[in-house]
Amino acid sequence: MSDVSAERNDRRRHVPRHIAIVMDGNGRWAKARMMPRQAGHRAGAESVRQVVEAAGKMGVEVLTLFAFSSENWSRPQEEVSVLMDLFLRTLEKESVRLHEHNVRIRMIGDRARLSRRLQEQMASAEALTADNTGLTLVIAASYGGRWDLARAARRMAQDARDGQLDPNEINEQCMTSYLSLDGLPEPDLLIRTGGEKRISNFLLWHLAYAELLFVDTLWPDFGTDELHAAVDAFAGRERRFGMTAEQVERVGRA
Ligand code: IPE
Ligand code: IPE
Ligand code: MG
After folding, report:
1. Are the beta carbons of 47 and 219 closer than 8 angstroms?
2. Scanning 13, 18, 24, 161, which has its CA 20 to 30 A from the CA of 236?
3. What is the mean pLDDT of residues 212-239?
4. What CA–CA distance (Å, rounded) separates 41 from 162?
């Protein structure tokens, strides 16, 4: 086997089932080029295309992208509009292509705050791709981990009130089933581009045991090579899930 294919093979064995990404740094990318922030967001959309394609080829099962947080509503109105418009146009343009690549699209976040048109486009992209069996692409828009947890609590309380849920049966598995990523494996790897070392209210519940990788690369500069490098870094981590290293080795040998 050539070195290159051996390396690729090794990577495949350690590919995370679920990668979540905080796509940060668009504004700084644009500023460094004396361009308006929106140019950074447009360039960022191109990175999304590359990374989705590369993740699918690597055999990643789920890719969750943080596109717009609950807190991003506080940005200047003009920037919010630009982002929503870009989101709508990208979804319109890319849905069919993603469908042809067997990608299943899923949206998480507070949809009620999005425009009617965007809500409709999201629903139609989800419906079109619902039966696809390749990569599941989760787009987090108007999403916050705290929003997700509060919504879960509200829905559990409603179900308990209606006699559909026994409060004594609420455990971690039950909680998970009320949260947005229900039915999907937990993220194994969280990548944040743009150099900041924080979660910014992303998947608070689900990141409990994710490996965290913070890279300085700004999102518009992040592409296939950077994703491969991230997965290689992940492959070098030892995930212990609370056990001792010796226990983990024993499990690994079995
Ligand atoms: C990430 O890039 C995109 C969104 C949050 C929507 P930013 O716009 O946060 O870029 P920086 O952090 O200002 O460089
Ligand atoms: C996080 O980036 C949200 C997204 C990438 C969608 P921000 O740029 O909003 O995060 P903060 O404000 O620096 O924490
Ligand atoms: Mg930012």
Report:
1. yes
2. 24
3. 97
4. 44
Quick check: CB of 194 below 6 Å from ligand 1? yes
8: pLDDT strictly greater than 60: no
Choice among 3, 9, 10, 72 that is catalytic: 72
- Return the pLDDT at 132: 98
Cα separation of 19 and 106, whole Å?
Answer: 14
Over the stretch 113-164, which tens digit does the pLDDT of each residue have? 999 999 999 999 999 999 999 999 999 999 999 999 999 999 999 999 999 9
**Model pTM?**
0.95
pLDDT digits (tens, 9 = 90+) for 228-253: 999 999 999 999 999 999 999 998 88
Helix and strand element counts for the chain (H, E):
9, 6
- Cα 225 to ligand 1 centroid, rounded to whole Å: 21
pLDDT at 49: 97
Could you give all domains of the chain from N- to C-terminal order, each with its CATH number?
15-146+185-253 (3.40.1180.10)
Alpha carbon nearest to ligand 1 atom 12, residue? 25
Edge-first strand order for the sheet with 18-22 is 104-108, 136-143, 62-69, 18-22, 189-192, 211-214
Strands 211-214 and 189-192: parallel
Q: Which residues crowd ion ligand 3, with CB under 5 Å?
A: 24
- 163 C-beta neighbours (distance < 10 Å), count: 7
Q: Which residue has the tokens 């009620």?
A: 112
Whether 44 contacts 66, CB under 8 Å: no
